[in-house]
Amino acid sequence: MLNLIKNNLLNGCANITGGGLEGNIKRVIPKSLCAYINLNNIKTRSIFNWIKNQGVDDYEMIKTFNCGVGFCLIINYKNLNKVKKFFSKEYQPYIIGKIIPGEKKIKIDGKIHWQK
Hints:
CATH architecture: Alpha-Beta Complex
CATH class: Alpha Beta
Distance between the termini: 31 Å
Number of strands: 5
Number of helices: 5
Structural class: alpha+beta
Number of domains: 1
Largest sheet: 3 strands, mixed
Strand content: 15-25%
CATH topology: Phosphoribosyl-aminoimidazole Synthetase, Chain A, domain 2
């Protein structure tokens, strides 16, 4: 993270803890901007499939858990390849959304495809 900051590659970040994606990302989004999150892009782990199969609906899953997205980086898309160089192969960042104009700080679209 410090290297991303030193190289001016980071516009914002959010640790996804209790409150899920929506509750944590909206805290770092300025007024008049919106984080558009496409749930179709999220790569889940099997533990979340297990939790889901205990009767938890999709809304509660994304509201309560990080669903495999433990940390979000907000970067300029043109810097994606530069940013990826700072991460090991195991922890490569991938795109789950984009920042768009809008008054609502976060918009969630799509559906998570739960890994089995």
